[in-house]
Amino acid sequence: MQRLENYIKTLVNADESEWLHFKSFVTTKSLKAGDFFFKQGESANVLAFVDKGLVFSYFIDPDGAQRIKKFSWEGFITGPYSSLISGHTTCDFSAEALENSDLFCIEYSDLLKLYESSATWQKFGRLIAEQTLIEKEIREYEILCLGLADRYRQFLKTHEYILNRIPQYLVASYLGVNATSLSRLRGKKASTLA
Q1: Could you tell me the residue range of the domain that residue 156 belongs to?
Q2: Each residue of 59-112: pLDDT tens digit?
Q3: Strand order in the sheet with 101-107
């Protein structure tokens, strides 16, 4: 739980009693590669901090294709945030383990209790929501305003620690292109370096 405690300390200065109160709500969950944390169209009331492993979130479009939303690895939070906040009973997207993963989980209802218990946890919730909003706006900007080459360059920069852990077809989906287009781009990049 040290990684989780360190993460929380980067956001708020929780005293010992606040930290113990927070820990009392935390459970652990282990996923094998291919296991779902939650599924699009099903209900879920939980957020998770990835302690070990890699989870990817995605939408299934009307044609049945996967559209990658984000990757969450060690030190990142994942969950159906918009569904939880808006009170939807089902998730708008799925989260699946790309590799064996260990998660620290908290029920959203328990997180709301923490918000009520202390200004520290209210601040924690606000900062996580702000981080989520920033990530979302950056992602929207990349998809709406950048060409493929620039989106790929950004991806390489922001995901450098996990590049060798993600299959190229998932990278292509994240970038909003098919695997052939990404392969062509990678070929061009390689030829300019030669």
Answers
A1: 146-194
A2: 999 999 999 999 999 999 999 988 888 887 789 999 999 999 999 999 999 999
A3: 27-31, 101-107, 46-52, 77-78
